[in-house]
Amino acid sequence: MGATVKFSKEKELEIIRLYLEEFKTQKEIADIYKTYNTSIRRVLMRNNIPIRGNSEIQRVINLEDIRSQENTSGFDYFLGILASDGCITNGTVILDFAEQDKEILTYWNEFLGNKCNINVSYHPVYNIPQYRISFKNQEVCNFYKQFGIVPRKSLDLTLSKINNNILLGIFDGDGSVFN
Predict the structure, then answer these.
(1) Could you give the strand order of the β-sheet that contains 119-122, starting from the edge strand earlier in sequence?
(2) DSSP string, 31-82
(3) pTM for the whole structure
(4) What residue segments make up the domains of the chain, in order of their start?
(5) How far apart are CA 148 and CA 160, in angstroms?
(6) CATH 1.10.274.10 applies to domain 58-174
(7) What pLDDT score does 176 carry?
(8) What is the pLDDT of residues 10-45, one digit of tens each?
């Protein structure tokens, strides 16, 4: 990582914009500027920007964000993705992918208005990177239930509709073709 730096007023405004408008974390912004997250925190505090806790980051997705996309090809695509590879548990929507499918998470984040973070962790057995977007909102989880996306869906998934976009999402989530 780089050294602690003094930012110009223009850079400070850009840091604030990334934090407030793009919902980037302090660490993500620090990575952009090749500095420490404490340097970013100081910029935010100096400018009287309230520091978000993890729970606040998870609350940025609301039901209207999702409902406004209903009846679009993107909404249907992500129903398929969630049906095949997503998880809903304890009021949290979770989508995990391996590194080669990370672009699906980028698309999912764009669909959600770029309000989530794509987090990386390493698989405990295979020691390979896994990428995840998750957010907590019980209303959104309840909304997805009407389409068949429920906890323990691998045991009782019943999609309320099916179309080409949903099928594409299912295929991108778990599909493969063999000759």
Answers:
(1) 86-89, 92-98, 129-136, 119-122
(2) HHHTS-HHHHHHHHHHTTPPPPPHHHHHTT--HHHHHTTTTSHHHHHHHHHH
(3) 0.66
(4) 9-52, 58-174
(5) 6
(6) no
(7) 61
(8) 999 999 988 887 777 888 888 889 998 899 999 999
